[in-house]
């Protein structure tokens, strides 16, 4: 049985897409009408804390996250929710160490920092890595929910991809960052509505939230006290706090998408407030989505839809539950699907705007100056930025359609997206936290970090789900399941290296550690034997505690090679240009 959408469901989705488009149109014809790159990419730096906080959450809570977190808790239990504590523990690190450096720099591209601290090669390596991972991720974010919704609702994959992709590209291109931020707020509310619809129905169906928890407990899905320090344990307090914290820092500390949102606020203090406010919003949606997985389990605890062949994968559980239980309520299924679409819209719009910023700042402007020896005019930069945003939207659609041919590479692409974050965090950390690091050492560290993390992730051992039952399928679905064919095969388990049995949460940890270790060793060796002239730096390129110490010792500009060599301040020749850098 494949439930179809009703007319009211289509009406709800159409209204959601129309509102998102209308927001883009509104900001195209109000204010400065998106005539400058400052307004188009940074919303004129006059956004308030609330919308930015919601946007910070929505930028990486994609449809994959909503579908994946609910199926994670259904399949493996609720231990995963401990990761929300790591977000709180690492928020002050991002807010008071990394964020002040970017705020003082006030550069549209976060990777401009790397050129000032290291050089053009480091900036280009980082921005290219970001561009590749976000382009692939956009297509996957758009394709994954479309695939699920086609299988379960009758909405064709082509229709879903084109509807979300075109609407998203439209309002992002014409409305700029202001449209992206405001639609993120609207879409965040729909994401909460989608998840709440699952929880509320299960609450009414089972009589209480306690009953849902009891059923989950009987299925061994409520264990929260796994403190095993063994890194091969998939989810424990150690892996979730350490690995989750590094993932959070890679996203909220140095990622272009988030840094660009911080800079839409005028002052540092309010930007830090937005980051702090993001934590409870992010945690609330994460916890609700996690509990929705238990709510779904409360219905299917005696007849798993995957094993009984009602659906193909666990990622289809949430949409299947909504249609199977609430499909007869006019408009409610449409509201849920609108929430899933909104999760994709918010993530893709964030990526489009950030990729446009990277392209104009890191590629177009440097190439234009190199060829003409003149700066690109403001009008030309604004027009080209909008065109680039439109082009990336087209690329996003193309990748989404091509994703159906990727097969196993789909999971590999998602894995690469995760493992690039740790090494990039390591690259920024080398620049901000150390005075030893130089460009050759740091870039070498980045390459080694990405290579090692990818090797670990690609060869990793697949997880083993908790047991499920099919004994109640005849009662629930009026079908008899062949228990023999449904049973797992007893093939011998493949032998994995220890490193490939380590939890996937440590991929980013490996990435940052290898980047830091290799970066420092190579940099120290080069500093010790190199005859190259010294470079002068502004102390503001370092985290505030280190910057303060360096400023007290060396003044407003410093020779890093001199610090490493221990040369006295009397022998330093200070050079400084108009921006404080030379």
UniProtKB/TrEMBL annotation:
GO cellular component: plasma membrane
GO-annotated biological processes: sodium ion transport
Presence of keyword Electron transport: no
An MF annotation (GO) of this entry: symporter activity
Predominant cellular place of this UniProt entry's protein: membrane
Domain of life where this protein originates: Eukaryota
Keyword annotations from UniProtKB, A to Z: Cell membrane, Ion transport, Membrane, Sodium, Sodium transport, Transmembrane, Transmembrane helix, Transport
Intracellular or extracellular location(s): Cell membrane
Gene3D superfamilies given in the database record: Sodium/glucose cotransporter
Recorded family membership: Belongs to the sodium:solute symporter (SSF) (TC 2.A.21) family.
PANTHER family linked to this entry: LD47995P-RELATED, SODIUM-COUPLED MONOCARBOXYLATE TRANSPORTER
Identification of the protein by name: Sodium-dependent multivitamin transporter
């Amino acid at each position: 049985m494949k439930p179809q959408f009703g007319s009211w469901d289509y009406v709800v989705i159409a209204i959601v897409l129309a509102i998102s488009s209308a927001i883009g149109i509104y900001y195209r014809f109000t204010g400065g009408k998106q005539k400058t790159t400052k307004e188009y990419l940074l919303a004129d730096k006059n956004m308030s804390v609330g919308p930015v906080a919601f946007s910070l959450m929505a930028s990486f809570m994609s449809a994959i996250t909503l579908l994946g977190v609910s199926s994670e808790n259904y399949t493996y239990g609720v231990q995963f929710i401990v990761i929300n504590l790591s977000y709180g523990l690492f928020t002050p690190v991002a807010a008071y160490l990394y964020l002040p450096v970017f705020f003082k720099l006030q550069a549209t591209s976060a990777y401009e920092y790397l050129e000032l601290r290291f050089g053009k090669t480091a900036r280009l390596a980082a921005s290219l890595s970001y561009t590749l991972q976000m382009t692939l991720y956009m297509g996957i974010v758009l394709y994954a929910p479309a695939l699920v919704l086609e299988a379960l609702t009758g909405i064709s994959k082509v229709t879903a991809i084109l509807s979300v992709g075109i609407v998203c590209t439209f309002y992002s291109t014409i409305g700029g960052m202001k449209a992206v931020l405001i639609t993120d707020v609207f879409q965040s509310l729909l994401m909460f509505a989608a998840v709440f619809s699952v929880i509320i129905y299960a609450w009414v169906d089972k009589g209480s939230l306690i009953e849902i928890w009891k059923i989950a407990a009987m299925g061994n899905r409520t264990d929260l006290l796994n403190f095993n320090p063994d890194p091969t344990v998939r989810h424990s307090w150690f892996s979730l706090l350490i690995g989750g914290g590094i993932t959070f820092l890679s996203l909220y500390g140095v990622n272009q998408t988030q840094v660009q949102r911080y800079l839409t606020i005028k002052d540092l203090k309010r930007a830090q407030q937005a980051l702090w406010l993001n934590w409870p919003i992010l945690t609330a949606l994460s916890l609700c989505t996690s509990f929705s997985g238990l709510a779904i389990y409360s219905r299917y605890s005696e007849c798993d839809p995957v094993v009984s062949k009602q659906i193909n994968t666990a990622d289809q559980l949430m949409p299947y539950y909504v249609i199977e239980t609430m499909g007869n309520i006019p408009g409610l299924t449409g509201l849920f699907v609108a929430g899933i679409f909104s999760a994709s819209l918010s993530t893709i719009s964030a990526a489009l705007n950030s990729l446009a910023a990277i392209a104009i700042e890191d590629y177009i402007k440097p190439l234009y100056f190199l060829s003409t020896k003149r700066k690109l005019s403001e009008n030309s930069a604004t027009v080209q930025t909008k065109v680039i945003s439109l082009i990336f939207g087209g690329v996003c659609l193309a990748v989404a359609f091509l994703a159906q041919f990727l097969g196993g590479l789909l999971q590999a692409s998602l894995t690469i997206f995760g493992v690039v974050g740790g090494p990039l965090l390591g690259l920024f950390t080398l620049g901000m936290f150390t005075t030893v690091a130089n460009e050759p050492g740091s870039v070498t560290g980045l390459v080694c970090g990405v290579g090692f993390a990818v090797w670990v992730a690609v060869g990793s051992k697949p997880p083993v789900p908790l047991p499920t039952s099919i004994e109640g399928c005849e009662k629930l679905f009026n079908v008899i399941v062949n228990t023999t064919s449904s049973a797992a095969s007893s093939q011998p388990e493949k032998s994995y290296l220890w490193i490939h049995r380590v939890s996937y949460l440590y991929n980013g940890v490996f990435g940052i550690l290898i980047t830091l270790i290799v970066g420092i060793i190579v940099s120290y060796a080069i500093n010790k034997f190199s005859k190259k002239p010294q470079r002068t730096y502004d102390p503001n390129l370092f985290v505030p505690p280190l910057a303060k110490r360096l400023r007290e010792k060396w003044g407003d500009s410093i020779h890093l090679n001199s610090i490493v060599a221990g040369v006295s301040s009397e022998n330093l020749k200070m050079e400084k240009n108009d921006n404080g850098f030379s």
